[in-house]
Amino acid sequence: MAIATGTAAAISAAMALAGTAAGVVGAARQAQAQREQAQYQAKLAQRSAAIAEQNAQAADEAAAAERREGAENAAKKRQEAARLIGMQRAQAGASGARVDEGAALDRVLDTAERGELDALAARQKGEDAAHNQELRAWGYRNQAQGAELTARALKEKGETDYMGSIRTTLLNGAARTGRNFYSLGVQGPRI
């Protein structure tokens, strides 16, 4: 029993459309799963960016603390030098020597010089530690920027892959349907 050309064409078209629909549903499910995975990874990247920014802020605070500590230590060194100079002058005065000339003056000037050098060294040590903390903060901020870029790229990739997969499946199904109709028209129904 022969099937009419129109009937065969309708059956062929229906099968091609059913195959395309099934392919689109499968592709949509797969694309949705991929999109959800990309969104999850994007959230992880955003969380990493937030943590890196928090670390950068902590490093900035540590830098300020190091700088303050260096200034405080410098002030202590100067006070210590002033106390020593006072003791030296008192000892020289108690012995009856003149404190503003000769060896007593040299000793006081040496103590003042050493005290100032110690104060400057303490201040520099604080500045160096602060600079190291600022470099850490810079590194953390670079990490945060990288994680933000990764998050943005993952979000875009998830959306692009989702729509691209569905579009590709639809186009492939349409091409298959078109080929079936073309073959049917050129060769006639085959049963």
- The string of secondary-structure elements, in order, is HH
Total count of strands: 0
Q: Proportion of β residues? A: under 5%
What's the story with the biggest beta sheet? none
Per the principal axes of the C-alpha atoms, what is the gross shape? rod-shaped
Distance between the termini: 10 Å
Computed CA radius of gyration, to the nearest angstrom: 41 Å
Whole-number mean pLDDT: 84
Which residue ranges are poorly predicted, with pLDDT under 50 across at least 5 consecutive positions? none
* Helix content class: over 70%
State the secondary-structure class.
mainly alpha
SS field, number of helical segments: 2
Describe the protein in words.
The protein is mostly helical and 191 residues long. The chain has helices at residues 5-94, 102-187. The model has no long low-confidence stretch (mean pLDDT 84).
Can you give keywords for this protein?
mainly alpha; 191 residues; 92% helix
Would you spell out the secondary-structure blueprint of this structure?
Layout: H1 5-94, H2 102-187
Give a concise summary.
With 191 residues, the chain is mostly helical.
